[in-house]
Design brief:
7 helices, single chain
């Protein structure tokens, strides 16, 4: 289902790291919109529930944000979570995480069709794609170098999953003094509980320190205000 919770009832959003955007210093990153998370028949499908989006729900919202960002000249990058086919870089993943995936688990090995970006996504040839075995896109990639080279101050985060890759990326951005904006209806979280408290707690944690949590409509209003200001 699409986002049905009231963010202002869930958390205090009165203090913002990014009350506005400078479009020339803004970047959009799309995290893990991979078939394993977005396809209801895949091994790692994110079901959502309790008024929170599913992985499938996020496809349309993310695509709309991507299209609008490109129209404004905001660079777009992507990342995929996975491990080598031989599993040599899996780290601790095999010890715990793979066993509680909702549809029975996925080894997440690159080369498996489930690790590919969902073909419904509006990926554009030439946009950077970072493959990584850890949850933050900053870990073990050149993503930080790319943001630094482009003088980026504001990082819009969309994709999956809220409580893992989105949250960990927002934390790393905060440690690097980059202002994250997480779009609530463009992300979803794993949780066995049908009310999906993991989604709520992750967003509250991000808003509490590491970034700002907004809806896509609020992001579009920020785009409009930044365009007028420019």
């Amino acid at each position: 289902m699409p986002l049905e919770i009231d963010l202002d009832q869930l958390m205090d959003r009165s203090v913002r790291l990014a009350p506005g955007l400078d479009l020339s210093r803004t970047w959009l990153h799309v995290t893990d919109m991979q078939t394993t998370c977005t396809d209801p028949n895949a091994s790692g499908f994110i079901r959502g529930g309790g008024g929170t989006p599913s992985g499938d729900d996020c496809v349309t919202v993310c695509n709309d944000i991507i299209d609008r960002a490109r129209e404004l000249g905001i660079p777009v990058s992507w990342s995929r979570w996975g491990v080598r086919a031989d599993g040599l870089d899996a780290g601790l993943y095999n010890d715990k995480v793979r066993f509680w995936y909702p549809n029975g688990g996925s080894d997440g090995k690159f080369g498996d069709p489930e690790t590919e970006i969902d073909p419904r996504m509006h990926y554009q040839e030439g946009e950077p794609v970072f493959d990584r075995p850890k949850f933050s896109v900053f870990n073990g990639t050149t993503f930080e170098n790319m943001l630094t080279a482009n003088r980026i101050e504001y990082l819009i985060l969309v994709g999956l999953s809220t409580s893992y890759c989105i949250r960990n990326t927002a934390i790393d951005a905060w440690n690097l003094n980059i202002r994250s904006v997480v779009v609530a209806d463009a992300t979803a979280a794993y949780d066995h509980d049908p009310d999906n408290p993991a989604y709520r707690e992750a967003l509250k944690n991000i808003q509490g320190t590491y970034g700002d949590v907004v809806t896509s409509d609020e992001l579009y209003q920020m785009f409009q205000e930044a365009t007028v200001a420019a």
